[in-house]
Specification:
The chain has two domains: about 160 residues, no CATH class; about 80 residues, no CATH class. The chain has nine helices and no strands. The longest helix is centred in the last third of the chain and has 40 residues.
Length: about 270
């Protein structure tokens, strides 16, 4: 009985090199990655604290512009003795996490990459970069477009009162808005995973486009600070665009799954 000879013209199958590491070696590697990540965050936080006052001056610009438009004093205040120090430390930590994010992601990548196939490594790399890009796009949209609208409306709606804006409360407010929009802009990534697990398809998303736009309109009406339709459309536009991008992402996922299924069928014959 002869054993089949492998064809030298065919590429050798990819090996999952992560299987060569023992459980103890994985733990040692995990410890190393965690220590490197913690050091990166600590160094980033130190740098963040040193520049946090300048960064907060940039963050406070939309609020100060809104106050000046209403002919009010544009100085922000703190209402407790440790208010300013707490803000500097808190903002410094956030800045440190942001500065250390590339190193932390790289450490995560070094930990999981040995256990992945080549095409999986490419997929993870694309996923990380697209997620970061979309998250930063959401923050940029919030800072440059949404915040000026919101603050102009909120400060203009003062009635018989005069605003006295606390730096800590303003920072909490702007953090919720920017992080919330950053998460909303991850919609294509969410659709990618839903399509990957077969929960949604491009046909399903396209068929229910009218309902998706209705939901987006309701969400935009809730978060829009002013009652005019133009402002609501400004907030709807990126959400609708993200939905269409999600349809395209779902189409790519379905096409790749069908291609791999066809290749598997050919290999089984």
């Amino acid at each position: 009985m002869t054993t089949p000879q492998s064809d030298p013209s065919q590429p050798a199958p990819e090996q999952e090199s992560g299987g060569k590491m023992s459980f103890f070696e994985h733990l040692v590697d995990l410890r190393k990655r965690l220590i490197n990540s913690a050091l990166a965050i600590a160094i980033g936080a130190g740098v963040g604290v040193s520049i946090s006052q300048k960064v907060f001056g940039w963050i406070a610009l939309p609020m100060r512009d809104a106050l000046r438009k209403q002919h009010l004093d544009d100085h922000l205040v703190y209402t407790s003795p440790a208010g300013a120090i707490n803000l500097i430390i808190t903002l410094g930590i956030y800045i440190g996490v942001v500065l250390a994010a590339p190193i932390v992601l790289y450490q995560v990548w070094l930990f999981i990459a040995p256990g992945l196939y080549k095409h999986e490594r490419k997929a993870v790399t694309t996923f990380i970069f697209s997620s970061v890009f979309l998250f930063l796009s959401g923050i940029a949209f919030g800072y440059f477009i949404m915040l000026p609208y919101m603050l102009d409306f909120l400060i203009g709606f003062q009635g018989p009162f005069r605003p006295l804006i606390s730096i800590n409360e303003y920072f909490d407010f702007i953090l919720i808005v920017l992080l919330g929009l950053g998460v909303i802009f991850e919609l294509p990534v969410l659709i990618f995973f839903l399509a990957l697990f077969g929960i949604v398809t491009p046909k399903f998303l396209w068929k229910n486009l009218r309902y998706a736009i209705l939901i987006i309109a309701v969400v935009a009406a809730i978060i829009t600070p002013t009652p005019d339709a133009t402002t609501m459309l400004v907030f709807m536009a990126p959400m609708v665009a993200l939905y269409f991008i999600g349809i395209g992402v779902a189409a790519l996922v379905v096409r790749n799954k069908a291609k791999r299924a066809a290749m598997a069928d050919q290999g089984a014959r």
